[in-house]
User: Fold these one by one.
Assistant:
Number 1:
Amino acid sequence: MQGVAVPVSLVAGNSIIHRLNPIAKLAWVVVVLVIAFMTRNPLFLLALAVVGLVLVTAAGIWRSFSRVMLILLPIGTSLIVFQAVAPAFPRPWTPITTFGPFTIYQEGIYSGLSLLSRAVSMTVFALVMIMTTHPSDLFTSLKRLRVPYVLNFMLAMTLQLIPVLQREIGVVMSAQKSRGMKSTGFGAVLPSFVPVFAGAIERVQQLSISLESRAFGSSGIKTSYRQVSVRPFDWLIGAMAVAFLIACIAIFLTNNFLDMSRTLVIPAELSLILVGLSALGFVGFVGSAIWLIVRA
Amino acid sequence: MTATATGPSGGPTIPRADAVFTGGPAMPRQGAVEVEHLTHVYPSGKVLALEDVSVSIGHGEIVGVVGQNGSGKTTFSKHLNGLLKPTSGRVVVNGIDTAGKRVQELAAHVGYVFQNPNHQLFATTVQADLAFGPQNLGLPEDEVQARVERAIEFFGLQHVRELHPYRISFPMRKLVGIAGIYTMQPAIFVLDEPTTGQDHVTTQVINTLIRRLRDEGATVVCVSHDMPLLADVVDRLLVMWNAHLIADASPREVFSNTEVMARTKLEPPQVTSISMQLGRRPALSVDDLATDLESNLTSVGVA
């Protein structure tokens, strides 16, 4: 029963991050997204992620946040391992050392770290926004920015449906366990996800009927019972996001996008430790997945 | 138990309930379910959902669990098959302490029928879905088939056995949901709101099925708001109020206890209210009231 669902939804709180206007937070998410795709410099991207972690601390959402970030573990470890031996990078590659039968390349380590730090930095900022913003507040704020009502509604509903589906998965897993289902891995997919998706489709059908019956799509000014104020501080944070983006673009354009793929020398020992630990984590994850399948 | 814990609805700390109302003299019971000083506090928000609940349910008994929303009914019932573990206290089902057992291990002993059948149906045909439980128990295929056939006959599912569960009506799905547990032949059935959203005919079918389950030797724990059903079918009612068990007595005794009814804001079945207003013993069904009135008329020489 416990620990089935990962809570990717609002974590109630009253921190400074919680109180910040949703648009200011969204601005930072978009800025980080743009920056993360403009540079491949892992140090810069990791620094961004660290800033994000400071925000996580300020928001007091570490518990829920870390559970979600665990999902990145197999992705991150596989990125390092596969990129190290087969870089997604133009040749020539510079060999650093060997790891069993495999050669580890400098560009591979660089590329793996780039992809990982890019994913982490974007995810951290996105989670800070999702976990500290009430979906209705985001809805109301986007409406002020004249985002089309239907698009706005779709975004808000998607965010609101995540916790609903998580609860549903928990209930369905309990129901199937009560029927003796021993699988917890892939063996549990069919008995658990058919009811969840069938229920989701049914819910969406009912929702669409309910919306139409309450005049969804009619013209006129839409109001909201939740009022979101924009304080000078919110403007400041939003402006800082824009300023940061402009500054980063300027730095990138004048410094070859901080590309260090050919200049950053990664010591062989450090590479081995990094790849070894990643391989261990990845094999551990794959092994436990296989064990769960076999046990099912 | 926990001084800082709040009530189920997040309200202030709940005062201890008075002694449990047990009606007449207690009958010696051979425990299918033994609950001793069960307390449960949900970790998120430290919500006290059950406090010091003790109850014994005998083999072959039909027991109803009633109370307002948030009183602890579902939390109590989820302890019976190990979906929840006691914060303190002990739950023993069919001689097995649930504390160290997984839900899957207890499934052979306690069958839990969820309120919404859609939460458990997934196979492409009704009969394949019925086979899911016994297959999980590791039974040989011929035994699985025998149980599926028995369940189809018991629940009258012959005409839908080849159909997809999502293509049959909701009341029929409810029956398939119960049948999916029946094929596992547990000693104890826990039914969560079995008649919610059901028409009168299906409610009567479920009423009959509960009796037949008992006739086959099963113990049935029925969590419900359906007072006429409970009045008609259960031997005992457990009344929950603000995380406490405040009454454990026959339906007749519970319905006639004005203090319990007032505190829990439960309404007895209409026929029970009418019989009490007539100054008769609390009737549990129209037939019961008719019989009582008939005997009264006979005794005064009118009939």
Note: The interface with chain B takes residues 1, 168, 171-172, 174-182, 190-192, 194-195, 198-199, 202 of chain A (CB under 8 Å).
Number 2:
Amino acid sequence: MTTVANVESRGPQTNNATANERGYLVPHVNIIETKDSFLLEAEMPGVSKEGLEVLLEGNELTIVGRRKTGVPGAGPVYRESSPRDFRREFVLDPSIDTSKLSATIDQGVLTLTLPKTEKVKPRRIQVTD
Amino acid sequence: MKLIRRQNADLWNWSPVEQFSTLREEINRLFDSPFGDWTRRTELFNGWTPALDLYEDKENLIVKAELPGMKREEIEISVYDGTLSISGERKYEEKNQDAEPYRSERFWGRFHRTLALPKPVQSDKAKATYKDGILTVTLPKTEEAKPKQIEVNVS
């Protein structure tokens, strides 16, 4: 069951720097499944709440993290980080209740909670006489 | 988050012998374990190398490091003999006991980066902030290292 599938290879929004001058970085992501929901964590250093965008279109989830890089008034001497913003797309399984998504960002890590629909949650059925 | 000015050069206190023996043990264990198992031996590939940037303005050298999802107390910074050292450990958080991993791309474990500073700095006046997963260390240059304008009186 591919519940939270990746679609980063699809469409023009890939991590291919040459394809697009305004290319995006693909954030590192962890996804775990619990009884009630899926938790998605994405690393987006330098992205604050203001720079974060979580878009849902049907069952397609897009996360975009915009960030300011560099130091105002100072020149770069040596640079390893990328000045690019982050973007990644996911296809959500129908078992996810898309009306109940929630998102938080803390120290550059976005945490998305994707609750499962009531239908697919395990439940105990009362036995009646 | 601690900012330590080291008095001794303990940057080099790791023992190469110990490192090699660990590596050899790892390799031996690698051949002992069934084939399907070795991909999970993440400790062999635990190299987490956070990106470092160095900037300079008139007064300061500014170092930025991408360290998403750390706690302040897990980051250690030291300045010794013209070398800035940033190290720490990101611990795996057991969020849910019954959780099942689907995708695991984030790094866990220790990192250690050192950077030779191109100008002398006043390490006792260094400052560090940690915001949005970015560590910023501001190191004021010594008076000698700052650019100066010299006025020449022509009589």
Note: The mean pLDDT of chain B is 79.
